Here is the input.
Amino acid sequence: MYPVIPDKLQSLYNNGYKLVIFTNESNIERWKNQRQKAVDSKIGRLNQFIEKVKVPIQVFIACGTGKSGKAGTKEADPFRKPKPGMWQLMEKHFNSGITIDMNQSFYVGDAAGRKKDHSDADIKFAEANGLKFHLPEDFFAA
Here is the structure.
């Protein structure tokens, strides 16, 4: 974790930003026999992070399968990044009826399609939702 993350997130929160984590978690579906263990592990990691940064953060986890019911069909799941489903769900049902200021909204993610990245889901998620995109190493640079 970048050392400046807690201060940066606290500053954003103090300036009226809502902080939200959107994450895909394929392990929850992959480990059907230990699903609860996978869920508890993911929630534990997220809770530890939120406790470290000391700001309220809303979390959305896409962990299901596609329409066929197979984990290999992630593209069909409208809630998995890069699909816009998690954002749309948050905007429509979990934002207390507040209109989101898209000019001030942005997304920070590490999956930007670079050679070293595991995917391009984050940058495509930002594009699909009309959000400015930042890489963590740029956004959280000291």
